[in-house]
Every structure is written in structure tokens, then in C-alpha cells.
Amino acid sequence: MKINAQRLLQNLDRYAQIGKKGRIGVERIALSQEDKQARDLLKNQMIDAGLKVHIDRLGNMIGIRKGKSDVKPVAFGSHLDTVYSGGRYDGALGVLAGLELIQTLNEKQIETDKPLALVNFTNEEGVRFAPDMMGSHIYAGMADLNSILNSPAYDNPNESVGSCLHAIGYFGDMKPGAIEFDAYYELHIEQGPVLELEQINIGVVEQVQGIYWTRYRINGEANHAGTTPVYYRKDAGFTAAKLQKYIGEYTREREGTVLTTVGSVKFSPDAINIVPDTATFTLDVRSTDEALLKRAQKEIDEFIEETVSEDGLSFEREELVRFSPVRFPLVMTDTVQSAAKSLGLNYKRMPSGAGHDAQMMAHFCPSTMIFIPSVRGISHNVEEYSHDEDVENGANVLLGAVLGRSAIS
Amino acid sequence: MKINAQRLLQNLDRYAQIGKKGRIGVERIALSQEDKQARDLLKNQMIDAGLKVHIDRLGNMIGIRKGKSDVKPVAFGSHLDTVYSGGRYDGALGVLAGLELIQTLNEKQIETDKPLALVNFTNEEGVRFAPDMMGSHIYAGMADLNSILNSPAYDNPNESVGSCLHAIGYFGDMKPGAIEFDAYYELHIEQGPVLELEQINIGVVEQVQGIYWTRYRINGEANHAGTTPVYYRKDAGFTAAKLQKYIGEYTREREGTVLTTVGSVKFSPDAINIVPDTATFTLDVRSTDEALLKRAQKEIDEFIEETVSEDGLSFEREELVRFSPVRFPLVMTDTVQSAAKSLGLNYKRMPSGAGHDAQMMAHFCPSTMIFIPSVRGISHNVEEYSHDEDVENGANVLLGAVLGRSAIS
């Protein structure tokens, strides 16, 4: 049995019109009017597909398809929100492939043993409201709902998650997590170049990397670039450059076991003829191995402390994010691998470099993810693209894995 | 003979009220209403002091005091304009000490052999209109007046130097450079920490450093920090960090013979979880030795080219400023040194790290500068400060040097 690829691609294109940006891109920020439009369409499509739709108090949408047995449903889905100037696949693919899966089962009049649950999580991207992966975070019981509902918009302190949920009509009455899941599958684009480079059809996602984000601010002294002798300078920019170089080399010497990135740097006063008094930069450290992750953070912190002290400067350090790595159970990844195999697709067991709802759901029920190739690894970008054939393959693997899991043996 | 320190300090304070900013600072942008007010006050004070005032077509103000002989006047002065959030000494000191010198000679009824010329140059700072040192640039015949008059404001393309000169009533009828000078002296604050650190009263300025400004843009590729393997990255930020570190070490290894500074750095897209696709940074290179200056620029350019190429990236390079070093003649610096000596002040022969009108005037007539200590080297800042005693010493040295030069032997 296979999904209807044409219908899925048409549906992806239909959602891509809601918040269309650029040639093929989408901008559909969580809890915006565009998000509401996409949610309304999904709700109607869920109802048309015979699902019973539940909305929880954080706006998470769960559509239930009954099974032969009244047990916990096998869940699958992702999110409909995007980043600013985002793509049409990141999020929507997992939701719409899930819908397609149900439409296919309906057409073939197949009733699964276990019920099925199609999920659209609220605010995975965290563009206007912190934290990201918000809906799954709460659904999995990892944070307090009320404090999240009060979380203000980055760009407008008068708007909160709660007020925006009310405004778009998605403040539901179900307690998040009230419907327990037998398992959770998430089909997603890789958002990296590996599958395409290695000509692999399917990524069987075994783990999600842990992520540590830290912001450093090096404090020196602003001085005239022409009149201040070198021995008198406290050049925050020079010190920061040494730290950035160390961080760049750190990951290159460890051949991918730990990824370290400096993505943002700001100088002050940032003038051509003034020695900078402050240099602020961010550090993104990721690894699937928590020990390596912690060691990297510690070694980098030590280097920063020593270097700043040697240079006679001072620094501040702000921890922004600390997510531990997540390992998906073999019993889950094996269902994905078997589905890929039986479809004659080649696959690669791999980690996810990005964060996803599935890593939160892993704390709630057995979970895993299915990756398809991203052209040139481009994502979080209006040019994000995956080939139609890969979209089809991914949806068929999702179908196969869900059918495997939903059978009561 | 000495100047009247109290009168000079009071006059400095009077001008500091025009565009007052902060506790003791000033913001008096060239060709602004504040500049007009300060110019009007100076014009009246020049007339009161018996000077014949000439305004040239770029608004440069020259007040002539007759001498016993009808020869070229000995000139001295500086500028009344400031940077945004500037100080009360940078520029105004040289003009007002010159005025004080004339008032002192008037009181003592002393007629010098050569005539004297007090000068206020237009737009030394170049805050709203390029280039800086504009008035002296044109007075010395180093650029075309008409193209400078058409130079638009950075912040408003509808305003030009010419239109603003008309608006404040300082578009004069004298051809710039029409009054030739026997010599040009400029008293100025050091704007660096050296005199204060070494407890020196007077800087005898032998040279002005050459200045090269260049902007580099390193081009890489934006990629997800979590999903992009190291071997696939084109991290413009990492490459830029290596270049910045090299530039910082370059000057430190050369112990002040060449100063190199990276004052401005910008990443794009400048996000914590995105490998930056571009890193733009500026290079400020200075030296009193043109050969060293050129070699530094060449060696840094070569290192940038090699490193960027090794990293598989590309770069662009934009030359912003190329000023050659200027050496002031011994016959001029010796008059300053003698004046300091005869006042019992200690002095240091030193270069100027910053650019000044005197470096332009050096192409027009024998020129030099006198520096007094800047507290903590702070300048281009509302907290710019020099002790009253140093202001007094500087003005007395100016008086002594001008008297030395104005005698016909």
C-alpha cells in the first residue's frame, strides 16, 4: 500500500499559499492570522477525514482515528508554523504526510488495530514566543502551562501566548497530554546536506543532538585607534577573535563528534577608528554524546576564562539553552528502517542536528523521526526544497512505520 | 610674557555652552546652527581683537593682525566643529588659544614683525560631510572646491556643503588659499594617553601618522549550525576571526611601529544557530613610516588572500582612506621645543596618531603641532578633559613658538 503522492504534493502546495513568501517559501509565524488560516484548513481536513479533533489549552491539535482496540493511539505529526522567510516543508510535511496517511487508509477502508492520532504542535519554531518546541514541551509535561501562557511576544510585551491563542480561537479545553500516545513518529526534512551528498533516500533518526547555547560579552575599553599605543589597549575585539578562532578549530579537530558555531558577533562602539570596548558573541555547541557536549562547553569556558584573564579583560556569560541529547528507542527506529527496506529505499541511521518536537515527545512516549533529503541542506529559508520523489518516499515510510506499530501482535 | 589663563578657560567654557552635551561635552556638527553660533561669536571676538576677518568659499575663517612688515602672516588655529557627543577641547582649544594669544599681544601693545593669522577651518571632523579635514584640504589646494561644495550630507542627500554654507551665511568670497601663510601652528589635545602616562607637559609633534582604512567582506555560505557538518561549512565568521587575530598580532609584534586595528565587525545573518554567510570588518593601519605602512597593508592583504583561499571562501575589499604620513620640518618643531624649554616645561618629540588640519597645511606652508595631555586619553567623547594647567601651558607654548617664528631676524 502507498500514499497518493499527487494529493500530498497538491496539499503541501495549498498550505504553502497561506503566508506565501518568495517563489516557493512561506512565512507563517505561530499564533498569527496565517497560522489560524492553516489551522482552520487542517481542522476541516481532519473532520473531512473522519477524525475527532481535540484542541488543548496550548492550541495543540490532535485528530483521532479510531482503531479496532480502544488502546493508546499511535501518533504522528509535526507543526504548521514557520520561521520568518521560511520554507514549505519544515513542519508542514510531517503534518500533511500524516493527513495523507489517514486519507489513504480511509480510501482503502483499512482499520488499524490501535487508534491513530494526527498532531499539529503549537509554536515549534519559537519565533515570537519562547521557548521553541513549545507545544510538545507542554504536551510532554516538561514545563508549566500557566507560565508559558503568560510568555510575552519578543516584539510586543502586550501580547502573550494566551492572548494570541484566544485571538485566533485556538485556546482549547483539553489538558495538554490528556490523550496518551502509544508512540510518536515525525517525518521531517533533514535541514542538512548529508542525505543528498551521500545519495541516501531516508534518514532513520536515532538521536537528537543536545544543544547548549551561551552568550559571552568581553569587556575591554574603547580607545582611539590612532593615538592609543598597543600596550595601553584593552581590545575586546582582538580577544574575541582569539576565542572565535579557538571555537572554530575545536569542532574541526573533533571531526563532527561535537559541533561548535559562533553565529553572532557584535562590537561596540563598532567604529573603524575606535578600539572596541565590548565584543559580544554567541556559542552553539551540539553533540549526540552528553559527556562530549559537557566537556566541550567546559573546555571552551576554560579557554575563554584563561584568554580573557591573560589579556587583562573581563567577561560575562549567559546560559541561554541547555538541552540534553535524546536517544530514540531501537523498537521505534527499527519500524522506520523496516518500512524503508520493504519499499526498496536506501537509508542511513543518523542523528538529528536540529531540535524537533519529537525530542520533547521522547519524554512522553516512544518516539522517532524520519528524514528526507533537503536540497543543498538549505532550510529556514524561502528556497528550502525537497524533491517530490523524496516527499513521496518519506510519506510512504511514515505509513509503513505507523502500520507496523499500530498492529497489535 | 604669558597668556591670560583665566580668560582663555572662561572663553573655552563659553564656547562649550554652544551645543553643550552631557556634563562637560559638546556636540557642534560642522555647518549646523550650533556651528553658526560659534562662528558668529568668533567673528565678533576677532573683530573686537582688531583682526580683519576673511571668509573663503568653503567657510574657512581667517582673522589677520597686521605686523611691522607686509609679509606672509604666521598662522595658527584649528576648528570649532566637533563629532557627535564630542568634547570641548578637540578643535576649539587651538582656535581659542590663538585668539587668547592675540588678545595678550593687544594688551601688551606688542606688534610682531610678521602679521599673524588666526584660522578656523571648516568641517575638520567630517561627521556629516566627507572628507574630514575638509577646510584645510581645500585651503592647501589638495582637492577641487566645486566637487567638495556638491558633497552631500551622509544623512540627507538634499543638503550639500554648499547649500549648508549658504544657509548659515558662511559662503565667503575669498578664494581658499588666497592668503598665503609663512607657517601654520596648531595647538591640540593629544587624544591619546602617552603624555599623561609619561608625565610630560608638552608634545612636540614631529609627524602625523599615515592612515589607511580598508573594509573587507568575507563571503561564505549560511547554514544550519546543528545540521551542517564541519567539512561542508563555509563559515565566513571563522575565517574572519583568523584574520582579525592576525591583524591584532601584527601590531603587537611590531611594538608600535605600525598600528593595526579592527574596530568594526558585522556578521550576517548574525543568528546564534546559523553559520554566517558574510563577515564584514574594517582595518585601520597607521604608521609614521610610509614604507612600513605600505608593507603592513600588503602583508595583511596577502594573509587575507591566502587564508580566504585556503578556506575555500571569497572576499571583497574596499579602500576607504589612503593618507600618507606627514613629517613637520625641524625649523618648525624647534620653535615649539624652544618655547617649552624656556617656560621650564618638559616635552616629548612625538607623532600624532590622529589626523589634523596641520597635516593638510603641511602641503601649503611649514607646519607643526603642539600637544597637551588628555586625561586617560579620552577624546571624541563628552568626557574628554584636559587639566587647566595643561591648557595654560599649551597656550603659552603656542605664544612662544609664534613669537619666535614671527620675528624677522
Average pLDDT of chain A works out at 96
* Total of helices of chain A: 12
Percent helix of chain A: 25-40%
The CATH H-level superfamily of the largest domain in chain A is: Zn peptidases
- Rg from alpha-carbon coordinates of chain A: 23 Å
- Biggest sheet character of chain A: 9 strands, mixed
Q: What multimeric state do the chains show?
A: homodimer
- The gross shape of chain A turns out to be elongated
Number of strands of chain A: 20
Q: State the largest interface.
A: A-B, 61 and 61 residues
How many distinct domains of chain A?
Answer: 2
Structure class of chain A? alpha+beta
Distance between the amino and carboxyl termini of chain A: 20 Å
- Percent strand of chain A equals 15-25%
Report the top-level CATH class of the largest domain in chain A: Alpha Beta
Low-confidence stretches of chain A: none
CATH architecture of the largest domain in chain A, by name, is: 3-Layer(aba) Sandwich
Here the CATH topology of the largest domain in chain A equals Aminopeptidase
Please, could you describe this protein's structure?
- Chain A folds into two domains: 5-208 and 325-406, Aminopeptidase (3-Layer(aba) Sandwich); 210-323, Alpha-Beta Plaits (2-Layer Sandwich).
- The model of chain A has no long low-confidence stretch (mean pLDDT 96).
- Chain A has 409 residues and is α+β, with helices and mostly antiparallel strands.
- The longest helix of chain A is centred in the C-terminal third of the chain and has 21 residues, at 290-310.
- The first copy, chain A, has twelve helices and 20 strands.
- Chain A is elongated, with a radius of gyration of 23 Å.
- In chain A, α3 links the parallel β5 (74-79) and β6 (116-121).
- In chain A, strands 3, 4, 5, 6, 9, 10, 18, 19 and 20 form a nine-stranded mixed β-sheet that branches.
- In chain A, 35% of the residues lie in helices and 25% in strands.
- The first copy, chain A, has helices spanning 5-16, 33-48, 92-107, 134-139, 145-149, 161-168, 194-197, 236-253, 290-310, 330-342, 357-361, 388-406, and strands at residues 20-21, 25-26, 52-55, 61-65, 74-79, 116-121, 152-153, 156-160, 183-189, 202-208, 210-219, 223-224, 259-261, 265-268, 274-275, 278-287, 314-323, 326-327, 347-352, 367-372.
- The interface between A and B is large, with 61 and 61 residues.
